[in-house]
């Protein structure tokens, strides 16, 4: 990870002259991933990542981003970037497997907090992972299939994890059917997700943030230095001008 950050620092010195007049970067939207991507009333896909792409295109006329109006599940999206069928994915956390297969761009685009959610009639309060471990089989944690949180939770010994749910909606159903004690999901995201599924009165979010995780843009590992530098320089300029932080503030 440190090595890749050092490499990116060197890449920032690559000039735009090495890049063609218009560089097209391919990505896709991730379903069930608000606030990164959200389905809007008119059928378009919006969200933090889409707004970021448009800001980057305004900042750098030589850069164009395509594919953000098409949903691809996270595992498939990661696979396509890993093998160069797409150039990058937007807004994912760090885990050991990803470090081996992607380039992490700096700076992170925003930070999320992971919370446990329970049924509204469940009086339990959780302050730290030891409270969850103490529950044994009565403390099953439901996590979306393919989520980057799975590896991090597995590294915390003693937790019982069920990652079979294909989406947050599937895990909410499992929670309400008492097939798990907790749903593990991030904020921002879970609040709007519960409202969208009309579940805010049936599921409550526990106040303790169990993790605070930076979310990054991850690039195809064999991206050329010139293409990577153009994208990274543009992202850094938005961060330096405060526009990246202001965008993240729109999605608390």
From TrEMBL:
<dbReference type="InterPro" id="IPR001638">
    <property type="entry name" value="Solute-binding_3/MltF_N"/>
</dbReference>
<protein>
    <recommendedName>
        <fullName>Solute-binding protein family 3/N-terminal domain-containing protein</fullName>
    </recommendedName>
</protein>
<feature type="domain" description="Solute-binding protein family 3/N-terminal">
    <location>
        <begin position="31"/>
        <end position="249"/>
    </location>
</feature>
<dbReference type="Pfam" id="PF00497">
    <property type="entry name" value="SBP_bac_3"/>
</dbReference>
């Amino acid at each position: 990870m440190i090595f890749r950050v050092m490499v990116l620092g060197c890449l920032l010195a690559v000039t735009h002259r090495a890049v063609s007049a218009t560089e097209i970067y391919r990505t896709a939207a991730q379903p069930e991933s608000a606030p990164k991507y959200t389905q809007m009333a008119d059928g378009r896909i919006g969200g933090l990542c889409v707004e970021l792409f448009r800001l980057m295109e305004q900042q750098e006329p030589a850069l164009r981003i395509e594919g953000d109006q098409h949903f691809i599940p996270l595992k498939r999206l990661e696979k396509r970037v890993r093998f160069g069928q797409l150039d990058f994915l937007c807004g994912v956390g760090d885990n050991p497997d990803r470090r081996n297969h992607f380039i992490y761009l700096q700076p992170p685009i925003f930070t999320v907090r992971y919370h446990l959610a329970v049924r509204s009639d469940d009086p339990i309060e959780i302050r730290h992972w030891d409270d969850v471990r103490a529950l044994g089989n009565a403390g099953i944690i439901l996590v979306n299939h393919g989520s980057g949180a799975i590896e991090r939770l597995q590294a915390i010994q003693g937790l019982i994890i069920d990652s079979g749910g294909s989406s947050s909606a599937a895990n909410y159903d499992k929670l309400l059917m008492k097939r798990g004690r907790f749903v593990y999901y991030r904020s921002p995201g879970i609040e709007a997700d519960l409202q969208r599924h009309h579940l805010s009165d049936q599921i409550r979010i526990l106040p303790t943030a169990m993790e605070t995780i930076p979310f990054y843009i991850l690039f195809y590992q064999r991206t050329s230095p010139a293409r990577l530098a153009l994208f990274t320089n543009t992202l850094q300029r938005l961060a330096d001008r405060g526009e990246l932080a202001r965008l993240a503030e729109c999605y608390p």
